[in-house]
Specification:
Organism (chain A): Carassius auratus (Goldfish)
Structural class of chain A: alpha+beta
Largest interface: A-B, 13 and 12 residues
Number of domains of chain B: 2
Largest sheet of chain A: 3 strands, antiparallel
Shape of chain B: elongated
InterPro entries (chain A): COMM (IPR017920), Commd2 (IPR037354)
Number of strands of chain B: 5
Oligomer: heterodimer
Largest sheet of chain B: 3 strands, antiparallel
Protein name (chain B): COMM domain-containing protein 4-like
Distance between the termini of chain B: 37 Å
InterPro entries (chain B): COMM, COMMD4, COMMD4/6/7/8
Number of helices of chain B: 7
Protein name (chain A): COMM domain-containing protein 2
Radius of gyration of chain A: 28 Å
Number of strands of chain A: 3
Amino acid sequence: MLLVLSEEHKEHLGFLSEVDAPVVGEFGRIAVEFLKKGSNPKIFEGAARKLNVSSESVQHGVEGLMYLLTESSKLMISEVDFQDSVLVLGFSEELNELLLQLYLENRKEIRQILSKLAPSLPHYHNLEWRLDVQLASRALRQQVKPTVTLKLHLEDGAKRRAHVLQTDPATLQHLIHELERALAELKSNHCRRILRNIK
Amino acid sequence: MRFRFCGDLDCPDWVLAEMSTLARMSSVKMKLLCVQVIKDLLDEDIDYDKVSKLTSDAKFESGDIKASIAVLSFILSSAAKHDVDSESLSSELQQLGLPKEHTTGLCKSYEDKHGALQEKLREISLRLGRLEAVNWRVDYTLSSSELKQVNEPTVQLRLQAQDPETDSTQTTTVSITADKFRVLLTELKQAQTMMNALQ
């Protein structure tokens, strides 16, 4: 699957052919750092001064590289497709090789970062539990009533919430039974067939 | 194979796997590492510099250091949780393949801090809405806009409790008339008698 680059993108990346190979390597490293930790505009100023060009062209170059890397990693394009897509920019052999190496080395990590951007439901963080026996209340003495108190901690992005639940042991048994059935469903023939067909 | 220190269940696979990692350290160093892990379990600060010095002889990488701390944490807290005596712990660990000198060192540390560990685990057990402070004041109302001569004592009670879901402190203030307060006091005294009978 080929990557189709917009005119503006090609223009931004065109700047890279005007500088030396080590500089492109440095830009590549900066682009990956920005993808991992967020961008830092001050670096553009420093680089622009050293290369004697406007900081805007440096910024476009680095951002163009970042976009190229994220799009390629997102679509998980093969080496050949990447090389063909980059060919259209008209770079030198050396530059194409450099970009390919940059892509292959960082692909896995970029995909990991991208996977965290998908919307998600609150998920399990921690479960605390306690087994109590109610012996008496204001209304009734001499009781024996076991209860299980649960505190379910959920995490949703940065927020943490705790839910307090209470149940009697019979309901808890039923809950465990239902959850075990859900797990066992994974081993059924139907699920196995589907999992086998997903590469 | 059922192990008492795992609560009469099978030993987790990762614990079994890490036994060989622990055996790579000398038994003296492992005993010192146990001391550090116990400090961490008791919520005193763990000294990571000491830990890395202890593990540097055995040439542990950061993954190995984390694994050995995790497995020692699990063994010690699980043994304290299920109230295992140090001889059973010693024989069970040797069954898992931990060398004798290491086991002796670990069980000695466990025995020393057995009581303190159980106290700490009791403290962090689930408790909802802990009562943090009680303040009271007795007032005597002389008169009000409704009635010229009121002449009634009241109690102002301020309770500071922990909110079960957010763990933040909530303050509740109530004012109670003499009769209602007498009822409250009697009921609470009955509850206290019942609690003392269970001690």
